[in-house]
Every structure is written in structure tokens, then in C-alpha cells.
Write a structure and sequence with these properties.
It is an enzyme of class 2 (transferase). InterPro entries: Plipid/glycerol_acylTrfase (IPR002123). By secondary structure, the protein is an alpha/beta fold. The chain has one domain. The protein is built from nine helices and seven strands, in the order αααββαβαβαβαββαα. Helix 5 links the parallel strand 3 and strand 4. The chain starts with a helix and ends with a helix.
């Protein structure tokens, strides 16, 4: 049953995304601020598909911790879920994403239209300079910069591997950083076709205000996100029908060095 529901959901996920991108194409002629509504609309439609066909519900805690204006949202990266479902939480977000996504037909046009920040991982120094310039512009426009500090998806329960680049953003942009934890990897696992029913819990943690030394900021951010994410994974064990991914979590944790 899970495989069949997952297959139906995966097909609909990409099919509906393609259809919406075609239907919404006229917004390319509008100013960015007038056309942005299509992106959270896409997110909400896909979340409806997740709920109806895959049985994934969502609980968001800590909305009051989102500041007004521009800030950085540092998000745990376990799944494809958070790249889609967290968008409506923000008024005018911009993702820091790998440059190759700009090359995807139609989808890439949307990332350019809505001024998402591409980064060329092959040219580190040039990429960081370009990213910093675009990030400063976004904060000046009171936008929210969405970043996955681990750089790539990590399975739920895997040893975290955070990049230090976000500490440079924090230092130079002088804006709050909001850590965001969740347990989506239990329900839509990384590199898995199967999607499991359950409730994804998102926890928006208190912002880290500017002024800390980069190393101190980095340690606090990692601790805040990992502590909350681990707690949300443990909370998921109390569900009426816990995710089978929890067994994989236990195996990964046992394999980690003490």
C-alpha cells in the first residue's frame, strides 16, 4: 500500500508541478512582487497532494520567532519536503541554491524571475563573493534568505555535517539567523521513492541576534538545530503508527563514533 500511494504521489508531484509552471507562466511578464503569489500557491497545492495521497500532515511550532523584515532562515535538510513545504512561512524568501538548478527548463526561469541566489560550487571564492553581494541586496530589500547549512540532504539520524559559510553570512549581513528544525526525513526520506504517512513537526527556534563571533554563532546554531531535530525524531516514536525509518535512525546512531 505504501509503495502504491508513494508512486501515485510521486507522479502527481512532478506532473502537477509541470502543469502549474505552464499555467502560471504569464507571471513572467509581471514585476516580481506581483507575481510571487504563484510560488506559495504551488507549495500549498503540493502539500495538499502530500496530505491526500501520501498521508503527510504538518504541525508548525514557533511562528512567533520569525522576525519582521530581512533575516536568514537556517534550515535542517533531511528531505525534499522542506524545499517545498516551508515556503509559505515567509513573506518574500530567496533560496541559496546550486547554480545548476537555473539550467532546468521552465523551473530555472522561475528561479531567475524571483531572484533566487545561485552559487557556483566549482569556483569557491568567486561564488562566495557573488553570493554575499546578492544576499546583501536581499536583506536590504527586507527579504528572507533560506539556506540549508549542511549543503546537501542528510538522512534522519545521520551525523550532521554543517558548512561554515553561513557564519560568514551572519557576520557580514549583521541580521538575525532563525534556526529551523524538523523531522521530515522520517516521512519523505532522502533518495527514497517511498513516502510514509505521519505528521511532520517543524520547530522555528528563537532567532540568533547579530553580534556573536562567527565560531560562537556556528556552535550555537548547530547545537540549536540538532538538539531540536533529535527531540522531534524522538517525539515521532510516540505516534500511533511510528515511521519505519526510525529503525534506520537507530542503526545510523549506533554506527556513529562515540
Amino acid at each position: 500500500m505504501v509503495f502504491l500511494r508513494s508512486t501515485l504521489f510521486q507522479i502527481l508531484f512532478y506532473l502537477v508541478t509541470f502543469v502549474l509552471m505552464i499555467l502560471f507562466a504569464p507571471v513572467m511578464l509581471l514585476p516580481r512582487r506581483w507575481g510571487w503569489w504563484v510560488v506559495p500557491t504551488w507549495s500549498r497545492v503540493l502539500q495538499l497532494l502530500m496530505r491526500v495521497f501520501a498521508g503527510i500532515k504538518v504541525e508548525v511550532r514557533g511562528r512567533e520567532n520569525l522576525p519582521d523584515g530581512g533575516f536568514i532562515a537556517a534550515m535542517k535538510h533531511q528531505s525534499a519536503w522542506e524545499t517545498v513545504a516551508l515556503i509559505p512561512l515567509f513573506r518574500s524568501p530567496t533560496f541559496i541554491l546550486k547554480r545548476e538548478l537555473r539550467w532546468i527548463p521552465i523551473f530555472g526561469w522561475y528561479t531567475a524571475k524571483f531572484k533566487q541566489i545561485p552559487i557556483n560550487r566549482g569556483k569557491r571564492s568567486e561564488a562566495l563573493a557573488a553570493m554575499m553581494l546578492a544576499a546583501k541586496e536581499a536583506i536590504a530589500e527586507k527579504r528572507q534568505i533560506l539556506i540549508f547549512p549542511e549543503g546537501t540532504r542528510r538522512p534522519a539520524g545521520a551525523e550532521p555535517k554543517y558548512k561554515f559559510g553561513i557564519a560568514h553570512l551572519y557576520r557580514d549581513l549583521k541580521c538575525p539567523v532563525v534556526p529551523i528544525a524538523h523531522n521530515a526525513g522520517l516521512y519523505w526520506p532522502r533518495a527514497s521513492w517511498k513516502v510514509y504517512p505521519g505528521t511532520v513537526i517543524v520547530e522555528i527556534l528563537p532567532p540568533i541576534e547579530p553580534g556573536l563571533a562567527p565560531n560562537a554563532f556556528y556552535e550555537r546554531m548547530v547545537t540549536d538545530i540538532e538538539t531540536a531535530s533529535d527531540r522531534l525524531i524522538e517525539e515521532a516514536r510516540t505516534a500511533r503508527k511510528p515511521s519505519p525509518v526510525l529503525a534506520e535512525v537507530d542503526t545510523r546512531r549506533k554506527a556513529q563514533p562515540v
